Task: structure prediction
Amino acid sequence: MNWAYFADETTQTPPSLLAEQGPEEWVWRTGHPLLTGGRAPDQLPERGSPPPDPLGSTGWLGVPLKLKDHVLGVIVARSYNPDLRFEPRHLDSLALVAGQVAMAIQRMRGEEVLRESEHKFRMLTESSAAGILIYQGERIIYGNPAALAMSGYSREEFLRLRFWDLVHPDHRELIKERGMARQRGEKIPSHYEFKIITKSGQSRWIDFTASVIPYEGQSAVVVMAFDITDRKQAEEQLAYIAHYDSLTGLPNRLLLEDRLSKHLAGCARDRERLALILLDLDRFKELNDTAGQEVGDELLRETARRLVRQPNGEAARLGSDQFVLVLAGEERSRRVDDSLNSLEEAFRQPMSVGSHDFHLGFSAGVSFYPEDGTTPEALIRCADIALARAKSFGGGAVEFYTESMSRMVSEKAGLRQQLRRALKRGELEAAYQLIYASTSGSVVGMEALVRWKRDGEDLLLPGSFIGVAEESDLILAIDQWMLRTACSQRRSWNDAGYAPVPVSVNLSARQFLKPGLASLIQAILEETGLPPAQLVLEITEATAMWDMASTIPILQQLDAMGVTMAIDDFGSGYSSLMYLKQLPIHILKIPQAFIQGLPLDLRDVAIVRAIIDLAHGLHLLVVAEGVETAEQLHFLAGIGCDAIQGFHCARPMPASQAAALLSR
Result:
């Protein structure tokens, strides 16, 4: 306890304030007013006798300064004039003064607390990393440095803004509605995320927390905001990765199924159909293996671009080289044929990567809602079954799903498993079809053909199982088995003294384009001891022209080894004469499709004559396949065909029968 104010006409030194030693302490301690030396000095004896005034006054008047029940201080009046005595009315007057003083002290303390609170608030907000602002109605009345930095405005500009001016148009109406409702006292979520627009026009995401505070007698809203743009961008990137193919930018399977579900719901509501086209690039795996992943990736991107440019349908990538085109709605689903024709036209143009052109075809399977399925999974599964059927024809085909295809898929899976076992059990056999000179009739070669002796049944021809093998790596195992078997057999005939005519072996596109072919052939020749000149490798025209950048080096390696190369089914593909002259090949084989109409079909006659003249002009030998009549033989001999192969001369036969027809 100390004197906050003291004025006395008799002394300048206030008395000491020690507990229990003066009337001031008594008033402080008891909280009661005190009047002594007055005309009613005995009015307070029941409260205990107060101590005398140490200054020797003749009259003493004191009242407590109280706020509620708390004593803040004491107001004292002294009289040293015996004729001037204090009375109870003086006590009442001083009590009234004390009440006013107490309220003034309370206001002062409140203002001090408020000033201290505002100081602390500014210290906290001005140094806070969070953006903090206060708005009332629509007007911003405060913004800390972090809020200014976040928005890009100066303080003066910021305080002239309406709060909604900061909110991105995508969210402005919702945030404004919530903000006004919050100030009206309605229960509104206090925390959410939305975008703002900075002074420069940039969009930024903020994490927003708001609460209502009183300000000048009205409600205001204090906002705390954190810039979460980086987090949002990371989330968007993760969402993009989860729903879009990173290579092509097309929707992936997850997003495709989600969109399909929505399309199907709409089709069910409106009683409309939907078509799903599943595409697979023909021979893409072989090309990717030979040309490299960078080339393969660019071809996939170009495929995606061509799909996106289609006038109808939504494109997606399922993975690898499989793509989807969805035609939703009655009108689009009726135009499946138009879409397929448009796709064929788009893929007819070569795809250029660097200095190389690639001719990519596709196979497709088509399914329909509601006929083939009512869920995304069912439609994709049915289209996949139809696609497998289309691929079994060797590529470039389109199949529409039918229920019978499901049975075929099961049968093919079973056949594939049996074929795998057949390789392990040694059930494959080689047959040999002799090739004759068209004029002399002497044997000039033979072609090794695979047969399958399945579980004691009759021999199965390649057409019944090679297509299944080509859909998996089984074809590689069959190719290599045929190479070893044919080379080993030819070496055995050499040892037995038979004429050293070459043996031809067909290579699948996958085997030809698989890296390391020359090393594989070299190893087999060394393993079997067969001279390279006695081996002819046949590849189809389509395989040869598939990727000229890879084909030419492979053929050059084989030619350098002394192996003869033949182009099978010449004229059935899309050969470029410019490329043909660059190929180190030795034989062209004319397919049966051009032979069977001879000599009456003038168009076949013209085509065969042209092929023979072309081949001889390039110093190549010509072999006609599928010769079945004497008339065909005589005609071919007459126009200069070098050799013939077909049932008219010899059917494929076991090695023991073929040996009997070889001269020693």
